Predict the structure.
Amino acid sequence: MSPDVRGLAAVSTAPAAARLAPRVRVDSLVWLGVLLLAALALSLFVGRYPAPPLLAPERLLTDELAQRLVLNLRLPRVLAAVLLGMSLAGAGTVLQMILGNPLVEPGFLGVSQGAAFGAALSIVFLSNVAWLVQGSAAFFAFAGLGLSYFLAHRLRYGGWVLRLVLAGIAVSALFSAGVGMLKYVADPLRQLPEIIFWLLGGLWSITWPQLRAILPVTLIALFVMIRMRWRLNLLALEDATAFSLGVAPTRERVLVLTAAVAATAAVISVAGMVGWIGLIMPHLARRLYGSDSRRALPAALLLGGLFSLLCDDAARTLLAGEIPLGILTSLLGAAAFMALMMKQPLHVSR
Amino acid sequence: MNTPLLAFRNVRFGYGANGKAVFGELTLEIAAGTVTAILGPNGAGKTTLLHLALGWLKPQGGQITLRDRPLADYGRGELGRLIGLVPQSEHNPFEYSLLEYVLLGRAPYLKPLEMPGPEDVRIARDALARVGLAGWEGRSIARLSGGERQLVLIARALTQGPRLLLLDEPTSHLDLGNKTRLLALLRALVGQSVTIVLTTHEPEVAAGLATHLVLMRGGQVLETGPLPDTFRSDRLSATYGVPVEVAQVYGRQVVLWG
């Protein structure tokens, strides 16, 4: 990974002329999109049937099982992987911009731990039916955000951003303790493995109906984020400054924040805890395409989709038993994060 | 010329519902084409005054008018096209190019989902040129010195095409060379019919630039008026609460203290 990163990062720090020629930028973003589409198509043929790693395309003409496999299992899963990566990376970009802090991701506002608690609660006390687990996860993801927001208003310490992050840490810790408690009381033979698998994260259970269920929310949320991408730059400024530029800082932040959390809650509800995409992809996008979210946000979406897709391909192909996706994204994401930090120190203020 | 550009009438303000009042009864007029320097010790309410003038903070009593119309009646975009703010310091952890950053000043002219176009880029480039940063469009804002960063913030405010420019301690953290350049730039702006209100901790900056002074202490305006009359030893001593002596050196006013 490191030689690629180094070569591409050089582009973003290149002198004025190269950085600002819009044609170059658009082209490279389009190429990234083409790359994602190609990876998407290729992923349909990647897998362990009939033998790893690839299904010969001509086999689709004759093998009915292969047709059903590609259309009913791999296609929804591949699309869900892209949607998952895009939603997490988009939400990560939004949170980093509006909190003016490059070190946050959806997990920071109690969203992820809230979802985990909701899923575990449903598995232990209600039922492990998919829609109940997902609904409960989504509900508690929003509850996590709401609680963080409420606490941040009650805190009397530091600025709004710092308060929100502190409140998020407290709420995450609370839900995390709740998850621990649920794990402790769960039936070790039936329920505990379910909880653990959900916490590890993965897309093995994705079917068309599940994809259809989350599609409207995630597409609307992604649309809102994309349309407001230039505005994100303004929302990264301090309140009074943003106001002086004609922005309603609180209202607009709440709007994009809601879109980000809705997308995150929807994809987490079907995929479980898949970490690090929301932190690392916005970083990578800014390194490659500059900080202006006119380009950084679309780039983060494409990179997030691509990364999630490739990780999921590896997760279902490398071993006979599936590797949980969350483990792969965390492993690669954390390694990439360290590599990026080694190359260039990060400035955090506020 | 009789109606002031900006007027505070009996303005009352405090932070929080039952917070301590910052201003009791603040009355103040700022005429178009003037440079008003607000002087006062830390905590006197200087930045609060700027934020009230901006419309960001709302008075709890009294009225603030801009061109004889209550500030509260203006839309946000409209205010953004009339008033520019140069904050005291701006921490942004992201590495924008100067052009991208200055372009943000065009927001009041764009619809909520609209993105800046070629005309906006041209205006942003002009603004960079006006502050002496022509040709710096592609540089990263993270690699600028404090003085250069201050110029970028002013350029961003200039792309708003403001009639009133509010600057919060624009010369703090600047060395003598940068201070001189900044004052020259601000003087040039006044010639281009921009009205300036700035806060400062440096009486000499006020003496070298301002036409009017506002002397504040503990939320009270002690004195306001045109410069030669207000810039006097007794007034400044009362403002800062320590003995201050105004002296003439080579025809310029300097402040001796301590």
The longest helix of chain B spans residues 176-191. The interface with chain A takes residues 51, 54-56, 76-77, 79-81, 83-85, 87, 90-97, 99-100, 104-105, 107-108, 112-113, 115-116, 135-140, 142, 157, 160, 166 of chain B (CB under 8 Å).
